[in-house]
Amino acid sequence: MGLLVDGVWQDDSHDKKRFQDGRFVRPSTLYRNWITPDGSPGPSGEGGFAAEPGRYHLYVSLACPWAHRTVIFRRLKQLEGTISMSIVSYGDMSEGWTFDQSTGSTGDSVNGKHKLAEVYLMADSRYTGRVSVPVLWDKKRATIVNNESSEIIRMLNSAFDAFIEAKTDYYPPAYRAQIDQLNDTIYATVNNGVYRAGFAVAQDAYEEAARGVFATLDELERRLSKQCYLAGPRQTEADWRLFPTLVRFDAVYFSHFKCNLRRIVDYENLSDYVRDLYQVPGVADTVNLDHIKRHYYGTQRRVNPTGIVPIGPVLDFTAPHDRDRFVS
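Below the sequence we write its predicted structure tokens.
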């Protein structure tokens, strides 16, 4: 992988800033504007990004769990006709995410670029930072609105409600404090925890991260033994932020990132919970295990030097579950 520095692509395979005492440090995203119903400023960034059908475009990877969140929300909120989308390649990352259609990309239908870095440079020709997905692009202003997944899903949840029929609110006011608390814990120990384990370059850093993953999974297992979803009886943002990590866990994080104390299938409630969410109409179409496995095993050569992609495991997310027992 690499990054742009003053608009020039640089390899960062030896960048020690990405690690502190052997611990992987995830950089912050830089574009933090918000789409709002009337274009007024959101919680961060500048205003001028009004919700309009056809104005915005998502750049995503089907392999990346952060981008997966946005693909799920686009589907749940039935925004396919309102926000267009391009999928990047799962393959060679020597120049970052590309639109190589021979390795799973749809191509760039909006800007016609060959690499996502070129899209970032359209927004800022001297951009310095990671070229990450997802990216929420404004076709009208030809710039990046936001590249922080947690904020993009908040926008998709409510900003476009005037133009769609799917009015379900996944961040309802009565649940927000609980959702925020869940998100904070799950992000630190599970969503990002698997990466901290997988990319660690010191034994103690790896063990700290990996044990943290399972401490939280154990607690979530207990929580889900008493209620259907993380915040109670209904699906919320917290569930859809956790799901992309869980659906990748047994196929990738268990072996590739050495998070191998237990599999998700070894947890009775968590495994039922994943199948329940997977079987929500439209969600299965957002899960592409081929892209996921080929990307992680094939491109992360620091972790898997041979690039060999394993043939297993066999996972059946369509199998029956018993989460309906919580429905009164």
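The first strand starts at residue 2 and ends at 5.
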